[in-house]
Design brief:
Blueprint: E1 2-6, E2 11-16, E3 21-25, E4 44-45, E5 60-64, E6 78-83, E7 97-101, E8 105-109, E9 123-124, E10 146-148, E11 160-165, E12 171-172, E13 180-185, H1 193-208, E14 212-216, H2 221-224, E15 228-230, H3 256-266, E16 270-275, H4 277-293, E17 298-303, H5 319-338, E18 343-349, H6 356-365, E19 370-372, H7 386-397, E20 399-405, H8 410-413, H9 417-421, H10 434-449, E21 455-459, H11 472-490, E22 496-501, E23 504-509, H12 510-514, H13 525-534, H14 542-560, E24 567-569
Parallel strand pairs: 8-11, 13-14, 13-16, 16-17, 17-22, 18-20, 18-21, 19-20
Antiparallel strand pairs: 1-6, 2-3, 2-4, 5-6, 5-24, 7-8, 9-12, 10-11, 11-23, 14-15, 22-23
Main location: cytoplasm
Enzyme class: transferase
Catalytic activity: beta-D-fructose 6-phosphate + ATP = beta-D-fructose 1,6-bisphosphate + ADP + H(+)
Length: about 575
């Protein structure tokens, strides 16, 4: 099965048996690409005029549906899986590089410039003459070094999926004097952005002697708006002490052809793209276009999301800082609630689709009585509801603290379909303010229905926790990510994201980063630890619990079998 990247806004004309033509649209934030039941099997063929990266005719088409997308997604890409077993493979398609070995070993390798540009010259790595590295016993990463995705395995089970280990290689594919690098930041802010920028610049300059580094101002739009900033170690010397990004950022603005034209016109041959899942998806399309043109350009991603919702990697940079800063708001809410009769402190934290910040901040605080996240539905009234639990805690303790993620309870407060379909420039669903809404509902319930006076204080630090500089832990992490990205680009790797997997820096193919969203598993031990800490109810009836358990078992089974999701085939068997 060959994977084809389907960019935003692509219509795929398909001809079926009954001579009718249908078009399907790949777009942001869809739950699945095609809304067709797996029972309705229809045979399709893709004509050569479809224009999907100049593909030739395919005998069959199927679209992969991952049940883990059921809560929606902001990915700017989906993968259309096409069966080309009976047709010639298109030279414009980039196949996943899969290497297998004994014992069920699987390496999901990343692309290399030599895959599509033959006879590239190589050069000795300048690090071998770098005095700073003279104390290192082993300068370079061995070519066969890989990192397992799962470190917990059964004795008779397969070794599983591995990723290429990050680090400097003995030979590099760029002469230092010919390197012209650029850095761009996209999407929302996150602690550590400036640290990553600084360490990319300093890594290129001090480790490899690269002098030409540009900053693209204002996100993807900056490529074709001709906004650039010269970067060198002096310019970026102390930017890690500031929040935000010195390059500016924006959402949307991704025009693949204009961006690649700009890269080609400027003579840029290393592109470092810092952003979340949507941004990394855009980077994947840029890489595909660069590869199609045969350009010697390395495209490297550094994953960034304050919600920690990027899959595969251990965590995203800035997450520790965000959790630490959230503690200040929770502590303030606890002081306010504890200082008055029937006091309730309500804190809203970031977490559009994934409640990691709220969960970890709650576990770290130990002052929180209830944590509400998008992955765990809840209800307000009735037995076992939120109001009943608040009443119970107020009677027992006289006060309580509630932490709620911004994406929690959206189905309860959305009263119109239109409000659920509005999106921002990145394709993310525009959320209503659940904090203000639930604050008012709690006040109305206790003062009007129960006739119990309460004192509720609402604290919203959502944007405060992402606008601060990164803490010491995240600064170190950002340094490792940035330097690993530089090593990979100089070694000729491209089309990858630099990320931490099981405590080791790795190079991960773009398609693994954008294929799904990382989310809190409410049938997992970590969520159980939170419930034990807060003593809150699960807000799940018995049936819901069984269904969630079944989904998780199915998800684990699919992962162990090496598949990323269910596949709803549109092909009837011959």
């Amino acid at each position: 099965m060959d994977s084809v990247i389907a960019p935003l806004g692509l219509f795929i004309p398909l001809s079926c048996n009954n001579n009718k033509k249908k078009s399907y649209y790949c777009h942001y934030n869809s739950n699945h690409i095609l809304n067709i039941s797996s029972k309705n099997k229809i045979r399709f063929s893709v004509p050569s005029s479809a224009g999907i990266f100049n593909l030739k005719k395919f005998t069959a088409v199927s679209f992969r549906y991952d049940h883990r997308y059921r809560r929606g997604s902001s990915d700017c890409l989906r993968r259309a899986v096409m069966d080309s077993s009976n047709s010639a493979s298109s030279p414009d398609m980039q196949k996943p590089k899969i290497v297998t070995g004994p014992g069920g070993y699987v390496l999901e390798d990343v692309p290399h410039l030599s895959d599509y540009i033959p006879d590239l010259p190589t050069y000795p790595n300048p690090l071998q003459d770098n005095p700073a590295y003279s104390v290192v016993k082993q300068y370079f990463v061995h070519v066969d070094d890989t990192v397992p995705q799962k470190i917990v395995v059964h004795k008779d089970g397969p070794r599983g999926v591995h990723f290429r280990r990050a680090g400097p290689r003995q030979r590099v594919y760029f002469d230092s004097d010919e390197v012209h690098a650029c850095i761009v930041t996209c999407g929302g802010l996150c602690p550590g952005l400036n640290t990553v920028i600084r360490e990319i610049v300093c890594g290129l300059y001090h480790m490899y002697g690269v002098k030409k580094v540009l900053g693209i101002d204002g996100g993807y739009r900056g490529f074709y708006a001709k906004n650039t900033v010269h970067l060198d170690p002096k310019v970026v010397n102390d930017i890690h002490k500031r929040g935000g990004t010195i390059l500016g950022t924006s959402r949307g603005g991704h025009d693949t052809l204009k961006i690649v034209d700009s890269i080609q016109d400027r003579g840029i041959n290393q592109v470092y793209i810092i952003g979340g899942d949507g941004t990394q998806g855009g980077a994947a399309v840029i890489f595909e276009e660069i590869r199609r043109r045969g350009l010697k350009v390395s495209v490297v991603g550094i994953p960034k999301t304050i919600d920690n919702d990027i899959p595969v990697i251990d965590k995203s940079f800035g997450f520790d800082t965000a959790v630490e800063e959230a503690q200040r708001a929770i502590n303030a809410a606890h002081v306010e609630a504890d200082s008055i009769e029937n006091g309730i402190g309500l804190v809203k934290l970031m977490g559009r689709y994934s409640g990691f910040i709220a969960m970890y901040a709650t576990l770290a605080s130990r002052d929180v009585d209830c944590c509400l996240i998008p992955e765990s539905p809840f209800y307000l009234e009735g037995p076992g509801g939120l109001f009943e639990y608040i009443d119970k805690r107020l009677k027992e303790n006289g006060h309580m603290v509630i932490v709620i993620a911004e994406g929690a309870g959206q189905e309860l407060l959305s009263e119109s379909i239109q409000s659920m379909t509005l999106k921002d420039a990145s394709g993310n669903k525009l959320l209503q303010d659940v904090g203000l809404w639930i604050s008012q509902r709690i006040k109305d319930y206790f003062t009007k229905q129960r006739k119990i006076p309460i004192n509720l204080k609402y604290i919203d630090p959502t944007y405060m926790i992402r606008a601060i500089p990164s803490n010491a832990s995240d600064n170190v992490y950002c340094t490792l990510l940035a330097q690993s990205a530089v090593h990979g680009a100089m070694a000729g790797y491209t089309g990858f994201t630099s990320g931490l997997v099981n405590g080791r820096q790795t190079y991960i193919p773009f398609y693994r980063i954008i294929e799904k969203r990382n989310s809190v598993v409410i049938t997992d031990r970590m969520w159980a630890r939170l419930l034990s800490s807060t003593n809150q109810p699960s807000f799940l009836c018995f049936k819901d619990s069984i269904e969630d358990t079944g989904d998780e078992e199915q998800s684990n089974q699919l992962l162990e079998n090496g598949h990323c999701g269910e596949e709803d085939s549109l092909i009837s068997k011959r």
